[in-house]
């Protein structure tokens, strides 16, 4: 008598797919790679998730709820603006250099480029990155409104600076730059914010 097929664990499959897309990027992750990583047939992957794109969208949602959601979690902790920005940078470095997963940021590296056939995915990910930038600008604008920043400070320029720095940290981590070296740039980076503080 044939054994029953292994029960499908959707959550486990999503976490395995997350690691795969993070490591190889959207276009670099083939269905064969997903079959190998998830340990289930492509037909079961399609049945569970509909398509590679739909699976990727679920993976990104999982990433933002877990590893990639550090900035939003810090923002909601109601810290002073300097503490909040420093904590976001520290947590970015810890996330992007964690020993138990791929280096860098899924949202930055998985769709850094691609062909016209995945333009919908590229546009969607660009919008997600713009939203993260805006959340940092909003943090600084709120601090400006509370009087934590000087009247002539430019919250948008500062937010763009720190968002660019976050994306740069992701690339540097992906390229193997050591954690301590990434942490060392936080102090000079924060000098721009200190100069703008009231």
TrEMBL record:
GO molecular function, one term: DNA binding
Xref: InterPro entries: DNA-bd_HTH_TetR-type_CS, Homeodomain-like_sf, HTH_TetR, Tet_transcr_reg_TetR-rel_C_sf
Keyword Transcription regulation belongs to the record: yes
Domain HTH tetR-type: 7-67
Keywords, ordered alphabetically: DNA-binding, Transcription, Transcription regulation
Gene3D superfamilies: Homeodomain-like, Tetracycline Repressor, domain 2
Coiled-coil residue spans: none
DNA-binding region: 30-49
Name the record gives this protein: HTH-type transcriptional repressor ComR
């Amino acid at each position: 008598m044939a054994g029953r097929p292994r029960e499908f664990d959707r959550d486990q499959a999503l976490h395995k797919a997350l690691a795969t897309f993070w490591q190889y990027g959207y276009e670099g992750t083939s269905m064969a790679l997903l079959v190998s990583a998830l340990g289930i047939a492509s037909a079961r992957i399609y049945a569970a998730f509909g398509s590679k794109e739909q699976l990727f969208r679920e993976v990104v949602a999982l990433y933002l709820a877990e590893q990639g959601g550090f900035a939003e979690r810090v923002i909601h902790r109601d810290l002073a603006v300097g503490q909040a920005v420093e904590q976001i940078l520290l947590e970015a470095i810890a996330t992007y250099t964690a020993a138990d997963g791929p280096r860098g940021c899924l949202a930055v590296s998985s769709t850094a480029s691609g062909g016209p056939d995945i333009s919908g995915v590229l546009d969607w990910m660009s919008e997600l990155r713009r939203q993260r930038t805006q959340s940092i600008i909003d943090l600084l604008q709120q601090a400006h409104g509370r009087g934590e920043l000087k009247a002539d400070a430019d919250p948008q320029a500062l937010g763009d600076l720190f968002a660019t720095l976050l994306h740069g940290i992701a690339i540097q981590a992906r390229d193997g730059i050591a954690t301590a070296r990434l942490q060392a740039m936080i102090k000079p980076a924060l000098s721009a914010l200190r100069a703008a503080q009231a």
